[in-house]
Design brief:
mainly alpha; 20 helices; about 50% helix; elongated; disordered N terminus; ubiquitin protein ligase activity; HECT-type E3 ubiquitin transferase; HECT_dom; E3A/B/C-like; ubl conjugation pathway
Length: about 525
């Protein structure tokens, strides 16, 4: 059928419906005759989009022609269904659109009505709802576990204990089911982790005395748990699982460091709110367990820096995140230790003496250049650096500042076309022995710009070149005078064996400032 046959011109009147039926029947019979004896096939009428048909009609004719064309399609479809496919259960009904404006508007109201209408469907037509996740039941109590361990001593059969470890460490939900005080309670408070700490300790204490196949089963379960729980937001049960796994004594062995590193990485990358929960749970640990966690992390860092057997670990270029992750978790423990009064362990227990043997100045310069950004430096975690290491850093930094200030003074002198003088490289102090404190205070006040330069002392009326001896003598005499009880700046307390500020000298702060500059 040509374009002219389907869309009549405005001059000719549209054909009546009866003629349209005859034409359609003749068109349908022609292909059947060409097929010969081919079996008849069940045919469905073509699905015509109401919107597409209406749009096409607007392009070709007036509104009256759109109605006639739609009637034509509807009549052909109904006749063909009645003649060829009476037994077919499928009946397609096309809407008799008289105008494009008759189409239902696509808006939020319609979508809302469509969503509400699904509630009126019968139960057979609705999709089945997903069941709520079922938490695993608590397999054993602490008493049951201890009885099973005692039976092993007499029978030698580890199957019951093996099944317990296999099930418990298989996933995070299983860990929560085994060690939560109540598996049906959420325990979403920072003060109570909801974990049976005594049960956890009993299970871990017994783990190290089990056969190797049980210990390997636990490590395999931890690997699968870490891989399974890597994606998605963390729940409080996930935090409890991390809290439990971190106490595993198997991580003292270097052969487990790869697994331990991935556990530390997942904990270190948690959001701040999750860290807040862990910090408050850490402070509830016993002193013994808390110290074990700290020592395990310090050992992990030390052996990664100076491995006894380098072949045991991946190359440092492929596991550069190990030490930053461990340091981050160690920072959480240090924060938890500071929240307890008195602290669980002394702050010196966080010192890592291994760091005394690395290039501390490189760490310091990295920290100065990048701060607390993505570039790691131990100076970001000063609580792990010992007093001796901090002393070295401060001393070398002071020396570098002296050299930098002296160099800048020399450049300024040359830029002003003045003759350089060696005295410009030092903080030159001329004092009288009879007025040691007052002269020293006056010199330091007048030469504040040179305070970072190297000190050089000259006693008035005495010939001599300060090669270090005069400076030491000045320090000794100054300290002896300002701390003398008769001078009145400080008082000595025999009980504490310390000097403290005197109440009689608090009206003059300049001399105390001198002591601070000297220190």
């Amino acid at each position: 059928m040509s374009e002219a046959d389907r869309v009549p011109s405005p001059a000719a009147p549209p054909p009546p419906p009866a003629v349209a039926v005859v034409v359609a029947a003749a068109a349908a019979a022609a292909p059947e005759e060409r097929k010969g004896k081919e079996p008849e096939r069940e045919k469905l009428p073509p699905i015509v989009s109401a919107g597409a048909g209406a749009t096409a009609g607007l392009d070709r004719g007036s509104k009256g022609q759109i109605s006639t064309f739609s009637n034509f399609i509807s009549t052909v479809s109904q006749k063909k269904e009645a003649a060829e496919n009476r037994s077919s259960p499928t009946h397609l009904v096309f809407p008799n659109i008289k105008n494009v404006r008759d189409l239902p508007p696509i808006c939020l109201d319609v979508r809302q009505k469509q969503r509400i209408s699904t509630d009126t469907l019968s139960s057979e037509m609705k999709a089945p709802a997903l069941p709520d996740p079922v938490l695993p039941l608590q397999p054993k109590t602490m008493k049951d576990f201890q009885e099973d361990v005692e039976k092993v001593k007499s029978s030698g059969d580890w199957k019951t204990v093996y099944d317990f470890y296999l099930t418990t460490f298989d996933s995070f939900p299983e860990l929560n089911a085994a060690f939560k005080k109540d598996a049906t309670t959420s325990f979403n408070t920072i003060e109570d982790s909801g974990i049976n700490a005594k049960f956890v300790n009993a299970v871990y204490d017994a783990l190290l005395n089990t056969p190797q196949d049980i210990q390997k089963t636990v490590l395999k379960g931890i690997i699968n748990s870490l891989l399974r729980e890597w994606k998605g937001p963390r729940t409080k049960d996930d935090l409890r699982a991390y809290f439990i796994l971190l106490q595993n004594p198997q991580f003292n062995n270097t052969s487990t460091y790869v697994i331990y590193a991935h556990l530390l990485r997942q904990i270190a990358t948690l959001v701040e709110a999750d860290h807040h929960f862990l910090v408050h749970w850490f402070k509830k640990l016993s002193q013994k367990r808390f110290k074990q966690l700290v020592e395990r992390l310090l050992q992990f860092i030390s052996l990664r820096l100076f491995p006894a057997k380098p072949e045991e670990f991946p190359p440092i270029t492929k596991c550069s995140w190990w030490i930053p992750s461990a340091s981050k978790v160690l920072a959480l423990l240090n924060t938890a230790n500071g929240l307890v009064h008195p602290p669980l362990i002394p702050y010196t227990d966080f010192y890592n003496s291994t760091l005394d043997h690395i290039d501390l100045m490189e760490e310091y310069h990295t920290w100065q250049s990048f701060g607390n950004s993505h570039r790691f430096s131990f100076c970001q975690y000063p609580f792990v650096i010992s007093i001796a290491a901090k002393k070295i850093i401060i001393q070398r930094d002071s020396e570098q500042q002296m050299i930098s200030i002296a160099r800048q003074s020399l450049v300024d002198k040359v830029s002003r076309r003045q003759r350089p003088d060696m005295n410009m490289l030092f903080l030159n102090m001329k004092v009288r022995r009879t007025h040691l404190v007052s002269d020293s205070l006056d010199e330091l006040t007048r030469k504040r710009a040179d305070l970072k330069k190297k000190l050089k002392v000259t006693f008035v009326g005495e010939a001599g070149l300060d090669m270090g001896g005069l400076t030491k003598e000045w320090f000794l005499l100054l300290i002896r005078q300002i701390f003398h009880p008769d001078y009145g700046m400080f008082t000595y307390h025999k009980d504490s064996q310390c000097h403290w500020f005197s109440s009689f000298k608090c009206d003059n702060c300049s001399e105390f400032r001198l002591v601070g500059i000297y220190a």
